[in-house]
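Apologies for my clumsy wording, but are you able to produce some protein sequence, whichever is easiest, and the tokens describing how it folds?
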Amino acid sequence: MITIFREIALKQIVTQKSKDIALKQLHDQLTELMAEIEAYEEEKTRMLTGFALRGGEGGQMENLRRQLDGESSRFFVRKDELMRQIGEVQNLREGEEIPAGSVEGPRVLQVGDDFAALAKAEIVLKDGMVAEIRDGA
């Protein structure tokens, strides 16, 4: 007999409460990101204006603009990702089980145990509470 550590899948049962919490978190992240975008765009405008007022060369100005626009695009990629996640959460059906990560836990392994069944362990959560423990072994 030996004790090993194995990954245990976490699953979440979708409820209206869990959807509301997830949507609030995503909307909060989106609001924060929009504030960051606005602040960055203002800083970008200040930097470009300051560079032009100092007599910056056209080629250097264009390089700076491209660099700043590249950073702006990363913000908008993140915004698109948040919008996609919001849509996914809105489309979840109550009662559906969705992946929610994993944890590691110990398991006593003995001769004759079904090793493949060890990977089937799951903890099912409902509104933050353990609703079910499924141990494949």
Summary: The helical segments are 16-53, 58-90. The longest strand covers residues 97-109. The chain has one domain: 2-134.
